[in-house]
Amino acid sequence: MRSDTAGAPLRLETCRTGRAAQIWQVVPAGDSGQFELRGAFGILHVDGRLVTSGGRTGLQTLDFAG
After folding, report:
1. pLDDT at 1
2. Which of 8, 42, 48, 56 is deepest in the core (most CB within 10 A)?
3. What residues have CB less than 8 Å from 48, skipping those under 6 apart?
């Protein structure tokens, strides 16, 4: 389980019931299946890696053919 932290990195931790840093919300963010991930310290921002400001926040679902 990834835990949200106050800085940019995420921390890998053992799951603990009710721990706020381990709760992620999927938030609708536009058309065509776009969404954002919100943790205890806000919405994740990515610019090639996790960043604390700037970057992009939207993620999108894509069809998978397997």
Report:
1. 60
2. 8
3. none
Sign of the CA dihedral with 51 first, then 57, 4, and 33 last? negative
Q: What is the DSSP letter of 55?
A: S
As a whole number of angstroms, the distance between CA 52 and CA 16 comes to: 25
Phi first, then psi, for residue 34 (nearest 5°) are -75, 140
What number is the average pLDDT over the span 32-38?
85
Residue 36 or residue 11, greater confidence: 36
Least confident of 4-8, 10-14, 55-59: 4-8
Phi then psi for residue 43, to 5 deg, are -85, 135
